[in-house]
Hints:
This protein is mainly α.
Amino acid sequence: MSKKSLPTKASQGKTKLGDQIRSIADRLKQETEVQIKATSRILGAAAQISENHDRLINEVVEMVEEDLNNEADTSQRQTYTVEALKKQYKTLKDAKAHFNLKANSWDALVNQLNALSLQSPVAENSPQSSQNLNGKQGNDRPEFERLAVFLEPDVAQMFPTSEAVNEALRFLIRVASKNLS
Length: 181
């Protein structure tokens, strides 16, 4: 064996080792670029989520403020009482005829009147103004029908009264209608 052949093998080994190191460095560089791109995408998505979150919070705040304003308006509306109606009308029949409502008692009449005063008025030209909820032609006041809905226990715990259920559903309707427009 000559001495010259040994350094050739050693230099070939160094070249192979150098190529391997360069290959590993290139892969690390590519992986880093992929990580940078992925991080950039994640940050972009997080910014979009934050923007949507802020928009939704602003919408909810606006709706709550609107509800508070409506509640203030509602508290300024006339609230009917049995005593006041009895002073104004001689009989239950007279009061029912005046308001064009059906009721079995003074309390039932007061409840219907207070429920109607909370509703927004229906425009004169709308199709609903000439039909009641049963679809019958008649006066401009809708007839109320009770609908029994059975709530699961976890839902009933959050919404213990029909008023709470109706309020939540109305809020959901407003959110959905704002998101559709």
